[in-house]
Design a protein that fits this description.
By secondary structure, the protein is an all-alpha fold. Helices cover 76% and strands 0% of the residues. The longest helix has 27 residues, at 3-29. This is U-box domain-containing protein.
Length: 364
Amino acid sequence: MDSWKLAAGEDSGVRVAAAEALESIVKRVGSTEKETRVDAAREIRRLTKTSARHRRHLSGAIEPLVRMLRDEKPECNEVAILALLNLAVKDERNKIKIIDAGALDPLIFFLQSTNSNLQEYATATLLTLSATSVNKPIISSTNAILLLVKILNDGSPQSRIDSIMALYNLSTIPGNLETILGSQTIPSLITVLKSCKKSSRTAEKCCAILESLAAFDDGRISLTSEEGGVLALVEVIEDGSLRGREYAVGALLTMCESDRNRYREIILKEGVIPGLLELTVHGTPKSQLKSKKLLHLLRKSPYQRSELEAGALENIVCSIVSRMDGEDCAGNAKKMLAEMVQVSMEQSLRHLNQRALVCTPAKK
């Protein structure tokens, strides 16, 4: 027999053996023996951690794993959640199958568990399942949003981050925004945003939710009522990811567009101008447009002369916005930015002093 035929036969034999091994795991996870089920679930978790092929071939284990979620033994619950989590990652069909198999009710139950591991694993799984559009309305029909907000307040550090990501996924359904807002989510989002790295995905998703909630009057009131809320958005505009900066400037723009007289001064006093000017040059197309719109709104406000030196900053902002569409707009913007920084030195120093006072602990 030719060598290539031998190799083909060997490859075929390996594939058959691998398929049989996977089928055996699926059978074992449905065993009546607890230890057999647990061992099989652990094996599924291991095999599906990085392999899309294994996620596809082991999808038959979804129903018995969901049954394990209803087991009275926490050990069975934990290994089943982790196996389902890995099966769902980057696999849209498995995400849908898991919900269809009835996993949502036990996962909602675990969100309320006093077992921190179960709560954390359930939050991560719900985050993954909520990433697909088919599942979003199904999850939204439960009390998942209220429970996710509770976890955002009281959960472990990781579950709080995952709850923000899950809330972001669900916030893309417009009807959910009032539920999220009514759950007093904004103070918790601001707390996380103030403490996390401004370029992180956590900050990005916080700002995305805040931009959506800023469309509501109650959302704007809550955002400006929280100490350091607007400042946190300004800091993301200065130091955030490209998408995070886009969401942050969008939130401030929404506020200012809703009631310029009410929100201009609140936004200006946090030193937003330098970040906005930089964003008109280095931001995404959307954030550049939003920044220019916000600058237009801010320059029309009745500045206090103590805040701005004889209106010089207003004139520079007005000039840079009007010249953005001309030739060499990037060069002009950079030049104007340098001039603005020099002219607004006093304002910047005042802003830095305010931040220092907030960050400095009181002496005992």
